[in-house]
């Protein structure tokens, strides 16, 4: 796209915590880099495009009266965007599906491997709830390391009846899994498969093996108070929490009880951020016919096979956990200033 035009009359407002944008499109448009709290209706009013993260709610309160024609979120999740409003007002919405999936899988396996210790992988069963971009990598890596993997994804199960893949119910996972990791989008209402408080009191009461619960999906997928009760009565042996209800004002009781607790940074790898930034920069370039500097190479996809050693060497969540437990009030500061980590090396 380097042969396309440069148009400084096009104004793009972007969260300043999204990296690489200055290199990718900074010379092609007027790029205004702001703190999340500075992205207000007054600022967006004169914007042609908005590049955001999950911290900015994109709805009528932000977009009414603006000339914005593109909302590009440098994230997998899109529950911070009012799609109905955007559709009604001719605003295109672009996300970055799968951008940080390898990093989240890295996070999940770094905690599972540490908590499993010296157990034979063939004796450990991992239940994956939601087998999309992230969950698929979690499953592939688990199988390559010899773990027993249970897959729960009702929409995929219906759509892929002839795929040869075996899916199980959430009840099956509750009965059989030693680790249960959630990778669903947040669906509060509507459809056949809402995920709000999917891990509820009823779910925790049905557990058979006192599993470890891992939430690196969306905070409200797990009912905070139900999980605290389950930890207290030992129906859950440990909790690993990266995504929290009420972020950044997280529950301090759950923070104290969680074996690993991090400030929503499971997907914060150098490669994941690059994938996301390239995706949203390309969306701006295509929408307005301007240049996108492609000198930043798109990182490779996740390897199908991985080794435990590669994961353990690539990331240890202990430091991030200690930092958050020491200073939970700086949750947002820790997240925004996170030292991006490299993903596990390819074989």
Question: Keywords, please?
Answer:
Rossmann fold, 5-stranded parallel β-sheet, 15 helices, 11 strands, 347 residues, 6-stranded parallel β-sheet, 2 domains, alpha/beta, globular, 35% helix
In short:
The chain is built from 15 helices and 11 strands. It is α/β, with parallel strands linked by helices. Helix 5 packs across helix 13.
Low-confidence stretches: none
Helix content: 25-40%
What would you call the structural class? alpha/beta
Report how far apart the termini are.
32 Å
Tell me the CATH architecture of the largest domain: 3-Layer(aba) Sandwich
Order of helices and strands: EHEHEHEHEHEHEHHEHEHEHEHHHH
General form: globular
In what range is the share of β-strand residues?
Answer: 5-15%
Provide the CATH superfamily of the largest domain: NAD(P)-binding Rossmann-like Domain
> How many beta strands in the DSSP annotation?
11
Biggest beta-sheet profile: 6 strands, parallel
CATH-defined topology of the largest domain = Rossmann fold
The strand order across the widest sheet is 7-6-8-9-10-11
Helix tally equals 15
Described by its quaternary structure, the protein is single chain
Integer tally of domains: 2
Question: How would you state the average pLDDT, rounded?
Answer: 94
The radius of gyration computed from the alpha-carbon positions, rounded to a whole number of angstroms, is 21 Å
3D structure, described in words:
- The strands form two sheets. This protein has a six-stranded parallel sheet, sandwiched between helices. Strands 2-1-3-4-5 form a five-stranded parallel sheet.
- The longest helix has 19 residues, at 270-288.
- It has helices at residues 21-25, 41-44, 60-63, 83-88, 101-116, 133-145, 154-159, 170-176, 201-205, 224-232, 252-257, 270-288, 308-314, 318-326, 331-336; strands at 11-15, 30-34, 49-52, 70-73, 92-94, 125-129, 148-152, 179-182, 212-215, 238-241, 260-261.
- The radius of gyration is 21 Å and the shape is globular.
- 35% of the residues lie in helices and 13% in strands.
- It is α/β, with parallel strands linked by helices.
């Amino acid at each position: 796209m380097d042969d396309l035009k440069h148009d400084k009359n096009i104004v793009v407002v972007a969260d300043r915590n999204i990296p690489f944008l200055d290199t990718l499109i900074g010379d092609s448009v007027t790029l205004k880099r702001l703190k999340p709290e500075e992205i207000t209706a007054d600022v967006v009013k004169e914007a042609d495009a908005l590049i955001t993260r999950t911290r900015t709610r994109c709805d009528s309160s932000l977009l009414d009266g603006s000339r914005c024609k593109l909302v590009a979120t440098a994230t997998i999740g899109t529950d911070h965007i009012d799609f109905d409003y955007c559709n009604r007002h001719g605003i295109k919405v672009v996300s970055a599906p799968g951008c940080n999936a390898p990093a989240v899988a890295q996070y999940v396996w770094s905690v599972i491997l540490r908590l499993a210790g010296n157990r034979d992988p063939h004796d450990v069963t991992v239940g994956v709830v939601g087998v999309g971009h992230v969950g698929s990598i979690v499953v592939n890596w688990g199988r390559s390391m010899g773990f027993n993997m249970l897959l729960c994804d009702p929409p995929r199960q219906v759509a892929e009846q002839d795929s040869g893949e075996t899916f199980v119910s959430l009840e099956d996972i509750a009965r059989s899994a030693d680790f249960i990791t959630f990778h669903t989008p947040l669906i509060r209402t509507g459809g056949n498969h809402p995920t709000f408080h999917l891990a509820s009191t009823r779910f925790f009461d049905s557990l058979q093996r006192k599993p470890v619960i891992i939430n690196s999906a969306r905070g409200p997928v797990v009912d905070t108070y139900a999980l605290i009760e389950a930890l207290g009565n030992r129906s859950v042996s440990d909790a690993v929490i990266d995504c929290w209800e009420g972020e950044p004002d997280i529950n301090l009781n759950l923070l104290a009880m969680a074996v690993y607790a991090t400030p929503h940074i499971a997907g914060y790898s150098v490669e994941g951020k690059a994938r996301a930034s390239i995706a949203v920069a390309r969306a701006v370039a295509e929408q307005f016919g301007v240049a996108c500097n492609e000198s930043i190479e798109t990182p490779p996809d996740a390897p199908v096979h991985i080794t435990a050693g590669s994961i353990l060497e690539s990331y240890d969540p202990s430091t991030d956990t200690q930092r958050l437990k020491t200073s939970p009030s700086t949750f947002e500061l820790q997240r925004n200033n996170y030292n991006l980590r490299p993903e596990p090396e390819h074989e």
